[in-house]
Amino acid sequence: KMQFSLGWFLDPIIRGEYPAVMVEFAGDHLPVFSRKESSVLKGSYDLFMLNHYTSNLITPCDSIESNTPCEDLSPGWFRDMAIDSRLPPGARLSSVNEHGEHNCEWFGGYPEGYLETIRWMHRKDVHAEILLTENGWC
Fold first, then answer.
1. Which residues pair with 93 in a beta bridge?
2. Which residues have C-beta within 8 Å of that of residue 39, sequence separation ≥ 6?
3. Are strands 129-134 and 47-51 parallel, antiparallel or unpaired?
4. Distance of CA 64 to CAs 25, 59, 88, 95, 114, Å?
5. What share of the chain has pLDDT > 90, as a percent?
6. Handedness of CA 67, 71, 72, 75 (dihedral sign)
7. How confident is the prediction for the chain on average, in pLDDT?
8. Of 11 and 4, more confident
9. Strands 57-60, 83-86: parallel, antiparallel or unpaired by DSSP?
10. Which residues on adjacent β-strands are paired with residue 47?
């Protein structure tokens, strides 16, 4: 999933192209960079800035571990990713309202996921500075 959510933006400015998995699953939806555009994009950053709210465990849809068949995924971005996504065990769920419902059902605080996201970004370019700009809670 990080290839689709972060790699979508990082890979073009680091490598001048989209992540291979995005091209494989969603290539017909992606704009194609000309050689010149790719060259201009590549290395066009000073630092990485990260807003991080939640982490998810993923499995390929239709795998034995998956809870969601591929055909049940929403068309577009979710189906292009071809993954089943859920909160990891131990994630802290969001606050609840006066009716006992979670304010943000998609949110689960998971510090290990935040750290792994930082490490993943660092592996993309070990010399780039990473500025942690936001880590919210709802």
1. 108
2. 16
3. parallel
4. 20, 9, 17, 32, 27
5. 39
6. positive
7. 88
8. 11
9. antiparallel
10. 129
Tokens representing 11 are 């890979």
- Check pLDDT > 90 for residue 127: yes
Q: Which pLDDT belongs to residue 59?
A: 85
- Residue 74: phi, psi to the nearest 5? -60, 135
Output the pLDDT for position 123. 95
Place of tokens 């009716």: 99
Strands 83-86 and 47-51: unpaired
Q: What is the pTM of this model?
A: 0.78
Q: Which residues, in sequence order, are CB contacts of 98 under 8 Å at separation 6+?
A: none
Q: Locate all alpha helices (DSSP H) within the chain, ordered by sequence.
A: 2-5, 7-14, 20-26, 35-41, 77-81, 111-124
Helices 111-124 and 7-14, axial angle in degrees (round to 10): 20
Mean pLDDT of 78-106: 85
Is residue 27 classed as helix, strand or coil in its secondary structure? helix
Which of 74, 73, 47, 76 lies closest to 59 in space, CA to CA?
73
Domain boundaries, the chain: 1-45
